[in-house]
Amino acid sequence: MSFRLRNPAYLFYERLLKSGILRGRSVEHVAIIQDGNRRYAREKGLSTHIGHSFGADTSDRVFDWCVELGIKHLTLYAFSTENFKRDESEKRYLFDLIKDKFAELGRSEKTHAHRVRVRALGRVEMLPQELQEEICRTEAATREYDSMYLNVALAYGGQRELVDAARSLAYQVSLGRIRALDVDEDMIARHLYPRDGTPVPKVDLIIRTGGDCRTSNFLPWQANGNECAAYFCAPYWPEFRKIDFLRAIRTAQARAACQQA
What we know:
- The chain is an alpha/beta fold.
- It has a single domain (2-7, 27-260), classed as Decaprenyl diphosphate synthase-like (Undecaprenyl pyrophosphate synthetase), CATH 3.40.1180.10.
- The chain contains eleven helices and six strands.
- It has a six-stranded parallel beta sheet, with helices on both faces.
- Strand 5, helix 10 (220-224) and strand 6 (229-232) form a beta-alpha-beta unit.
- It is globular, with a radius of gyration of 19 Å.
C-alpha cells in the first residue's frame, strides 16, 4: 500500500482521474457497502478486531475524499440487522469502535469546519445504550449543518426501513392526519430513516468492496428509483484505495452522461 502511494505513476494516474472528475458532472450521493474486513484479517493472519479497525481507518479516508471532491452525501453501511447474529465479542468490539468514531466526528474540527451533518440510519433503539447516547450527542452537535451529510447505517435493513415507513404512514392515516390518496413518493421518503425532516436523497452511486456483486438490502428505495450506478470491486474494505474510489466516481459520471445522451 505505502509503495503504491509513493509510486509516481500511481500518483499521476490518481491526479488524472481527479482532474477529469472535477470537470465532469457532480455526483451528489455515494453509498458504500464496506465489505471484507473479516476476510482481510483472516488472509493476513490478524484478528477480526484488527480487520474492523483497519476498515474504520478506510472510512475516515473516504470521508476525506468526499470532502475533497465536494460530494454532498456519503452513506456508509456499517452494521446491518443481520449482523446481530455475529459473535458477542465481535459485536461488542464493533459497537465500541463505532461509538468512538461518532465521538471523534462530534469533536472533529473537520466536521465543524466543513459543516457536516452526521446521522445514524436504522433501528438505533436496537443498539447498546451507550452507543445510542453517543449518536444522539453527535447528531445534536451537527444538527444545524447542511453543507455535507454523513449517514451511517446502523441496525439497518432496507426491507425493514420500508416496513417501518409503511407502518408510520398507516398510523398517520388512522389518525386522520393524512389521506391514503395523498401518499406519494415524496411523502414516503419523509417517513424513511432518519425521519429528522431531511430525507436521504436518491443515490447516484453504490460501491461494494470485497468482490461480491450484490447490494444486500441496502437503500432499496433511494437506490432503485433513479437507476443509480453500481461499482463492485475486488479489494477488501481495508485495502480500498483512493484510485478505486475515483474509478467508481468516474463510472457514475459515465452512466449519467449516457442517460443524458
